[in-house]
């Protein structure tokens, strides 16, 4: 049985070039603009990701608080900005080989 590919949603804090980099590696992702979530609340983003089984990629600490409060989510990748966006793309790609969408559910991964 084949595992479902992990899909991602990049919030507005993540540079557009990260989406381009992920797509060059054949990783499915949406941006806030593409998902028509500009101006949406953080909880709206979490719900969108949960509903569409997309792991949220962000550098907004508000999402960490939401996760700490026990809100269900499809997974959060928190970019600490210790490395450039190109490294974030490589880290996300590597993560796809190391875990599954089911394992990422309600998990927060710091990169």
UniProtKB/TrEMBL annotation:
Pfam families cross-referenced by the UniProt entry: DUF5615 (PF18480)
Q: Please list the residue ranges annotated as the DUF5615 domain.
A: 7-108
Per its record, how is this protein called by name? Answer: DUF5615 domain-containing protein
Q: Which organism is it from?
A: Rubripirellula lacrimiformis
